[in-house]
Write a structure and sequence with these properties.
heterodimer, A: 11 helices, about 0% strand, globular, B: alpha/beta, Alpha-Beta Plaits, 2 domains, six-stranded mixed beta sheet, 11 helices, 13 strands, elongated
Chain lengths: ~260, ~300
Amino acid sequence: MTALTAAAPINLDQTRKVGMLRLIRVELRKVTDTRAGMWLLVAIGLITVAAVTIFLFAADANELTYENFAGVTLTPQGFLLPVLGILAVTSEWSQRTGLVTFTLEPSRSRIVVAKFVAVVALGLAAVAVALVAGALFNMLGSALMDGSGAWNLGMAGGRDFVLLQLMAIVQGLAFGMLLMNSAAAIVLYFVIPTAWSILFGIVSALDDAAPWLDLGTAQQPLFDDHSLTATQWSQILVTATIWIIVPFVAGTVRLLRVELKSA
Amino acid sequence: MIEVDGLTKAYGSYLAVDDVSFRVEPGTVTGFLGPNGAGKSTTMRMMVGLTPPTAGSSTILGVPYSKIPNPGTYVGVLLDASAQHAGRTGREVLHLGAMLMGLAGSRVDEMLELVGLSGTESKRRVGNYSLGMRQRLGIAHALLGDPQVLVLDEPANGLDPAGIRWMRGLLRGFAERGGTVLLSSHLLHEIEMIADELVVIGRGKIVAQGSKDELVAATGTLVRSVDLDTLGLALKQAELEFTHSATGSFIVQGTGEQVGRIAAGAGVILTELRPAEGAGLEEMFLQLTADDARDEVSA
């Protein structure tokens, strides 16, 4: 073997890396080009329209305001957005497409960035749909139901809605990266906060601690109040660190290190 | 050009790949042959950076795979034809690849045509594809970026004989244009049809490598008898070297006439006596497979 000489490496100077914008566009397309992905997006659209429609007929006339119309979409959307975030990464394992994804772009951290940007863009799109649907139904409300029709969603309200939905979808992505399994990530995503809330409900001694430990409790002011105190912002930061940032970092580390197998 | 140097992968105390070194030259189709579980796929995954090696290194075109920018345009990789999203159409799978590599959309149609997937087939979801169709799609995906090197794991698996002949033509043409091809298989006859160089792996170790002609044209004589024990004693007395094969025959380092005379002298009835052409490789391969099968039984 000593007689073998190493061949001169090819000249790669003329070849550029795959651009980040291209990676993001591919990741966005991957979320939307499968049956599961397509139906999930359709479901998010439908559930948004359904929420404002029900509210239009169910609420009192004086409650038919822009803030309320946009606000009723938050919870139903918030159920599905995390699933979108989860599937954006777990399909690489459940459908084993990761073999191709991480072969065509060997830098896994760049794929994580692309997926993150892609799901954030989808989260923003969901809020945009909610705001448009809310506006249309606010007009319908004042025209058909003699509703208030007030345009009372200020900048702070819009900011809070964006924050809520982005936290939801990014948390989904984080759980997906951490667990690498669609079913496990979805189940855990829904079970943990519920179990946590029940725990805080039962153990009254934990009442004071809840906004510092339970993401749902800390997020409550984002739904309605929109004028948060420094303490409330701190509570959001602390709970988001526990439930979103730490899982995201741990998930990223796992994804960077895991061995990709075909079976 | 592919160079693999001392690649090793340990899972705990189990060595899946044990100090594997080989080299694949441009212009050749090299077969990576070994029974299931011999370490072929693990070696290939290490070559493209999906599995971190415990020791050793590998380069493709003179550089580590992960250092190649937009690697799909240099190296076509197919590690598992079934590893595609079942809910995507074949065309969409290729479209995503072309988009990522920054290729013109027309490349998708060219590749579909090249691998013989029709317009209607390409619009069906991969979940409804047969294994043969998935292999064709996988080959199309590997060739999408017009690469110089192909790394294909079991690409002929699931192809019918006509499909295997088609793949031979395709890979030969690729190699004749100066391309480098490494393909794995656990089937000897498949590899014999397609490859001209061989790397044989068993239990994580390279057990033979060289040109197919060299390995197939192993010298010696294959002999089969109703009384191998007596024949073995007679051969030992005549100081002829021989190996015991898994299928109950000897490969003797001697001519047919020598073996025949010894057998006649010992009064042993022979049931087969022929040049061991190809039998060497086949026996070696059967031995590897048989050893692994025994392991599974005892484990």
